[in-house]
Design goal:
15 helices; membrane; oxidoreductase; mainly alpha; 445 residues; two-stranded antiparallel sheet; 3 domains; iron
Length: 445
């Protein structure tokens, strides 16, 4: 066979190989398509491989972007990130169905996402699931209750910190100032006292550093980070926040570990001072417990510091904003407090049941300005449906709490700030199933 004939045969063989390969891929695609012919929610056109990352990574306002996508694609829509599908649910009826009625089917967590896997490692309360989560949540709530939630010792400390907050306000002598740092310090000081049985005063460098670290963490992390789906991007993207997040997380964890080490040196099982002591006592009594393991309880402490500080400070910030914006409501709150305390003693937890208008105002603050606008990512544990669409197993799902709080079906003139909407005919506080400032259901988190 001459050279030209040999070359011709090689070309034919290569073409046959390519045709065969394409045919196999086509058959596989057709089989897969017929096997998994899901009726998925609509969504924007996704780029090959990277999906909708370019659209989401460039937005500076996630809430505004969600609003635009809902207007374009409806009350439930789909986004693609690499090979992952993320479904956003905006209609209150379907949010209630997913979080409550079908809570078991959406109780999963997408542990395969890189950021939670790298930073949390399926431990603690915020990103755990199953028996471990139930046991740890029960342990955490029980410990907080035993340490003084609603008790006099903690009330006295809160009053002390409230005085410090007032002093910080007055130090500006009536000039404008930002509430950001004082409220963050105040919130952290309460959580810090419960966990470490220590008090840090306003303005201390150590305290400010913790506040700055927590603020950076919450301002940087979100489910739409490209690194969540393509971890290698942290080595490619210029100025990727993930590396800083990892360093920040290590710094916070190292700080807590040092506090635990100090506690071990002075630990006395007969004199429990704080959450750390309960942590050490539990490890001593139940060394083989999987749910209450050292790693799980340690992460629960991290969760308490990070979530407890940021959420409380944000709620207080919005409360001040609305009191300044609506002085008539501020006056009504003050009048109710004055009536009960005569302004000659601090407010106590016992007074709470008599302060209907103040309680209604705080509920309205959290309705109109929810701290959490989207739930943490859930994952479907089975093939299921929601809103008339198929939700395949392992699909990542987030529920829009902001949309539930502004749903005119459940709220009269939802854009208005009206504490009165929470007060019944007999001056009792009313309930509304669309109110879910920190999510809802059996697996609320």
């Amino acid at each position: 066979m001459d050279v030209s004939a040999s070359y011709f045969v090689d070309v034919i063989n290569l073409q046959s190989l390519l045709i065969g390969l394409i045919t196999l891929l086509l058959v596989r695609w057709l089989i897969t398509r017929s096997k998994y012919n899901y009726n998925l929610p609509p969504g924007p056109i996704a780029f090959p491989i990277i999906g909708n990352i370019p659209q989401m990574a460039t937005t500076t306002d996630i809430n505004l972007k969600m609003k635009e996508l809902r207007k374009q694609y409806g009350d439930i829509f789909r986004l693609k990130f690499g090979s992952e599908t993320l479904v956003i649910v905006c209609k209150t009826e379907w949010i209630l169905e997913g979080l409550v009625k079908k809570g078991e089917e959406f109780k999963g967590r997408p542990f395969w996402m890189y950021v939670p896997q790298r930073l949390i490692q399926k431990k603690g309360v915020s990103f755990n699931t199953g028996k471990e989560w139930k046991d740890l949540k029960k342990f955490t709530i029980s410990t907080l209750r035993d340490l003084g939630m609603g008790k006099k010792k903690l009330e006295e400390h809160i009053y002390l910190e409230t005085q410090s907050l007032t002093d910080a306000f007055q130090s500006h002598n009536g000039k404008p100032f930002s509430l950001k740092d004082p409220l963050a310090h105040f919130s952290l000081s309460i959580v810090y006292y419960i966990i470490f049985d220590e008090r840090i005063r306003f303005g201390e460098p150590e305290f400010q550093e913790i506040v700055d670290d927590l603020r950076f963490f919450f301002s940087s992390i979100n489910a739409f980070m490209p690194e969540n789906f393509f971890p290698f991007l942290r080595f490619v993207l210029w100025n990727s926040p993930l590396e800083e997040l990892i360093k920040n997380n290590k710094k916070i964890r190292s700080y807590i570990k040092e506090k635990i080490r100090q506690h071990k040196e002075t630990f006395n099982a007969d004199y429990i001072r704080d959450f750390i002591d309960v942590y050490l006592l539990t490890l001593e009594k139940e060394p083989n417990s999987e749910s209450l393991s050292e790693e799980n309880i340690f992460q629960a402490i991290v969760d308490l510091i990070m979530a407890g500080t940021d959420t409380t400070a944000t709620v207080l910030n919005w409360a001040f904003v609305h009191m300044a914006k609506y002085p008539d409501i501020q006056n009504k709150c003050r009048a109710e407090i004055e009536k009960i305390t005569d302004l000659n003693r601090p407010v106590t937890m016992e007074d709470k049941r008599h302060m209907t208008y103040v309680a209604a105002t705080l509920l309205e603050v959290q309705r109109i300005a929810p701290v959490v606008t989207l739930t943490v990512p859930h994952a479907a544990t089975v093939d299921t449906t929601l809103g008339g669409y198929d939700i395949p197993k392992n699909t990542i799902v987030q529920f829009s709490l902001m949309d539930a709080h502004y749903d005119p079906t459940y709220w009269d003139k939802p854009e208005e700030f009206r504490p009165e909407r929470w007060i019944g005919e007999n001056n009792e506080l009313k309930k509304n199933e669309a109110y879910m400032p920190f999510s809802l259901g059996k697996y609320c988190k």
